[in-house]
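Order emerges. As here.
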Amino acid sequence: MQSRALALAVLLGAAALAGCATAYGRGVSALGLGRYDEAADRFAEALAEAPARLDALAGLGIARYKLGAWDAATDALQRVVAREPDRAEARLYLGLSHLRKGEDGPAEEQLRALLGLKPHPRIAAQINRALSVIRGDVLSDELRRFLAASLEDEADWERELREARLEQRLRVDPFWPRGILHCFSTRHGRLICL
């Protein structure tokens, strides 16, 4: 039984490394580690190999957002949302890109659409607070930065919570995953493969 568990662990580890060796996997890893230039390059490389990859296009949009390239981020993320309207992370970063560009109407539209996807209640509450501020007075650049950062922080919290739950699940039942879809690194350098 122990040799079977070891064989499965080796197989999962090899599959994880193979998945992360792709341009997309390296992009996800670089994004998770805050290397946004590298992430954008790797996602662009993944798109050159497979132009229809929405996950790579979303990653490219998020990396561009993190680099402060609001127009390029908006372009990529609008294409993702047009093809997959229920992709919450793309809606969030598209809304934040519009917000940072001073386009309050489109920002509000994306954040409302994100609320329609039923995010975690804590994120939904933060979105509602942000929407009430956006509808108020003219926003300064500093307030726009603050709103965007607060929404990003809530999204990061929710993602880290999901990762922790997955990690706990894998600790309790190492045979739980039925296949590896992709790998990514957390901000703390842990490799998570789904």
Remarks:
- Residues 1-20 have pLDDT under 50 and may be disordered.
- The first strand starts at residue 183 and ends at 185.
- The two ends are 24 Å apart (CA to CA).
- The CA atoms of residues 123 and 153 lie 9 Å apart.
